[in-house]
Amino acid sequence: MTCKAPEYNNPTSVEVCQKQRKRAVRKRWILTGTTSAVLSQLTIPMLFAILALFGADLIELYFASRLGVEELTAMSFTLPIQATLFAFAIGLGIVVATRLTQARKVEELAAVSLVFTAIVGSLLALVIWFNLLPILNLLGFDEYSAQQLQVWPSLKAYMQYRLTAVVFFFVVMVVFGVLRAFGNMRAAAWLLVTFSVTQVLLSALLFSPFTQGLLLSGLERLGIAHLLAAIIGFLFSIYLLVVKENISIKVNLLSQQSRQAFKCLMRLLIPVVAIQLLTPIAQSLLMGIVATQGSDAVAAYGVVIRLEPIALLLPMVLTTSLPIFVGQNWEAKKALRVRRSIKLAMLACIVWQLVVASVLFLGADFLSGGFCKQPDVKDAINLAVSVLPISYIALAGVMLYVSCCNAIGRSGLALNFSIVRLFVFSVPSAFIGSYVAGFSGVVWGLSLANFALGACLILYTIMRKQPDSLAKRPVLN
């Protein structure tokens, strides 16, 4: 998008051009700044944002565990559904950010994108709501058992609030992606932090003695807190988009440009979301495997799912910031900067995962006891927290490799690695482990699958380098 000469009698025109110049400066800085400095400034704001987002989910699960093992188990069954919604939100953010950064008329496309996001979110929420119980049953939830029959009404109300919040949450994540694409990492981080902190504060308020008179179950309170936080985050995201980035959201939805934009967004959304849905599908299969081991195993696995993003915090953040650096420098044919950034990111991830694995191993007993006092659930959480984090070193390497492949246009290779990781290594290993040794077998199976995949990635990169080195080697007479 180019900025024409501003009309200096029109303050709005001047301000818009200033915003456009700032975006251009950010892009040049990514290509010329020192690798460590650029990666640090791209990553650190996102570190706090992602920590706040997944930390809020973990605290929500902690409040559920305070209600009882039945509530913790019931909420654990909904985690694959929530992961599916999150995958759609991320996919929408990628699609909209891609189109906005490529479009000449950003303002016209922005409003269409927000309406498109609202439509997709509404349809998805309705589909899940009308099929909620069948979906939960596929995951292993049995509404006829005594414990789950008792908790089903409050779980249904909880999901009602969560699904009502889908449209607002989707808009938050789309604007988050747009701000990142424009290089405004600080505003993007503040958006997620605001949403997450609001959810935590509202949850704490609804569980405080001041609100004990409300005729609401514990799960309903958590659902209401998420809905209100999503509405507040939605209002803040619109403020950032309109006021801070000067992007108008006024549009004629019946115009030909709007119809073309809808078609383009839908065409881009299908493949992107298909890739994003691989992880929720794998989580659903894993939940079904764990459900065969009983409700205690489901409760423990629910905690593990929410702890994993925290343990993988730095690699997850780098998969959002490193592609920005790699993609733009690769396009500018600066391969040396790309290699340097990948080595630096991998070294940081190795150090991070070693520290995280050590802390979780030493504090496993305290952490598991904080979520549940029941011995079987506590022991299961203890085992998972002690064994799985060390294998995340290999998983972090795979995550960075996949994100860099996407950044340089090798999406097919990234898709193949993701499919192999989830459906060739993780799910079969968990299934075999559950058959051999129950829930502990699932934990060990997932850990060994991560290490095996890391070894395959190293072998693959070595084999790719050998032909290149042979081609460059001089022929001796």
What does this structure look like?
It is built from 17 helices and no strands. It folds into two domains: 252 residues, no CATH class; 153 residues, no CATH class. The chain is 85% helix and 0% strand. With 477 residues, the protein is mainly α.
Give the key terms.
mainly alpha, 17 helices, globular, MdtK-like, MATE_fam, transmembrane, Multidrug transporter MatE
Helical/strand content category = mainly alpha
End-to-end separation: 56 Å
Largest sheet: none
Counting structural domains, the number is 2
Low-confidence stretches: 467-477
Number of strands: 0
SSE string: HHHHHHHHHHHHHHHHH
Helix count, DSSP H or I runs of 4 or more residues: 17
The percent range for strand residues is under 5%
Mean pLDDT: 83
Helix content: over 70%
Q: In a nutshell, what does this entry contain?
A:
The protein has 477 residues and is an all-alpha fold.
Topology readout:
Elements: H1 11-32, H2 35-67, H3 69-102, H4 106-130, H5 132-138, H6 146-164, H7 166-181, H8 185-206, H9 218-244, H10 256-276, H11 278-291, H12 295-311, H13 313-331, H14 335-362, H15 364-371, H16 375-407, H17 411-472
Helix pairs in contact: 2-3, 2-8, 2-12, 2-13, 3-4, 3-6, 3-7, 3-10, 3-11, 3-12, 4-6, 4-7, 4-10, 6-9, 7-8, 7-9, 8-9, 11-17, 12-16, 13-14, 13-16, 14-16, 15-16, 16-17
